[in-house]
Amino acid sequence: MNSFLAPSGVIGRLLPLAFCIAGVFPAAAGATGTAALAVSIEANGRAQVHVMVAALVTNPPAFTSAVTRMVGRELEDVDLDIEEFKKMATLGADTATAYPHSLFQIRGALDLQPLVEFLRPLDTATLSIRLTHPRTPESHCRAGKRTFSWPAVEYDDAVTLTKAALPRIEFEFGYSARDVLRIAGPLLLILLAPLGLTLRRRGTRTAAGTEAGVLDFRSFLERSLRTGLLLWIVWMAAVYGLAGDELTWFVLGCDSLESQIAAVVGVFVVPPLLVVMLGAVLGAGGGQTAGAATPRASAARVRVGWPLVLRTVFSQLRFLAPAAFAAVGIAYYREGFSAKADEWFGVAALAVVAGWAMIAWVNAGTRGGRPNHGQSLQFQASQRRAILQRESLALALTVLAPAVVVGLGQRYRLEDTPRMVAYALGLTATLLLVRFTNWFLGRRRFGPPPPTGTAPAPPFRARTAAAVLLPPAVVAATAWIACELFDFSFVLTRGDEGWALVLMSVSVALLQTLPRLLHPRTGQAP
Hints:
Blueprint (H helix, E strand, L loop, with lengths): L9 H13 L11 E8 L5 E7 L6 H12 L3 E9 L4 E8 L9 E6 L2 H7 L6 E9 L3 E4 L3 E4 L3 E9 L8 E6 L2 H32 L4 H9 L3 H17 L2 H9 L4 H28 L10 H21 L1 H18 L3 H28 L9 H38 L3 H27 L22 H22 L10 H22 L8
Parallel strand pairs: 1-6
Antiparallel strand pairs: 1-2, 2-4, 3-4, 5-10, 6-9, 7-10, 8-9
Helix pairs in contact: 2-3, 4-5, 4-6, 4-8, 5-8, 6-10, 7-8, 8-9, 8-10, 10-11, 11-12, 11-14, 12-13, 12-14, 12-15, 13-15, 14-15
């Protein structure tokens, strides 16, 4: 909860003072005899403390000591500001150590008595209290009324200092065992269901003595579009609906927006990828008969499975990138940044369209002819996969190489003329790099050789101008995504980094696709 709006952020440190001045607390900040206390506990157990006293503090060490004894922890990064003219003192600090906490629970207490004993000689009559902690299912606090629950939980109270003794403010929040099971149980079921189906089909294939166990998992996640997409959609919807990302934040103790983004991207992307890889390995081990079960044969099947793992992971990139972008948007939305979240959701949608457009373009360009042997289907599929890999690498180089040039120009603040020269050199270098990479990869043989006497795989053909111009459109979309990732601006008054990256990338893509437009029947894939 250490984002810009969180209690430890810039605005978070000023909110308690603004509340006091605006009259949210019972008495105005400038009135005699009032004080305000705001304590924010983070997911890692550490706290930020803010105290404001509407009186002239003449003993700053005693003030700091009273706050230290109140929180029961040593303070660090202490910021004490005393305004003699306004007769006001403010103190902000962080605790050096965390409150006692387990993996799923944080508990502690605030002893108000030391602070009260310091405030009474200053004619302070009331103390307004605000306690904030991350949103969790379980939350208990003896600090008055719960007033706010999103994106953090807040408790507000006001106490009168005329009492002889004030009770300790005890707090406890986190996840109970029931809450953890309620969240983790369905998520584990979603991950184990594809593996269970793979093992079941593998056993069926083994009993039949066939070697088709590898194709079962591929048909479930790779060949079947609806089923493969369904795994990611169900997983992301379940994680968001069950608040699995918030549980991950709490367990890992994420105390900044950057760490929260990294955690939510990991929980959205890593588990499905692990399921894909493990399922490919499990599927690669099936199909052997009892008489052929030898250690060497089993090792050979496992070695054959690893290329399938890499191919399966590559096929999941069409889901991985949009899922990662959507996860970033969810992290921003959880913290209350709706506008920023909408931008990242738009990036995720654009990544989906760009990925599927590239796949459809390659499939349409390589379609043609009827194979006269069953094995030629596998050969044509491997060739189509090789073209897709080559196109994907060319797409990455077309966008990332200009991004490096634009980023260096932004970092070193080049003038207009040197910057234009750098852009021109970067455009030329990117074009040469892409063409060399395509030439090098084009010399390699991908997949198994075609069977003797069978029809070869059809060459890549660009039949229409729309099909030729589709790759530059995909490049433009990818460049826009890169501008969002690298924070390149499209506002001319702030810089031209965004427009420079898009124009350079699209120019390289157009120069690459020009032969296809001139020779649509023989133009090869770049």
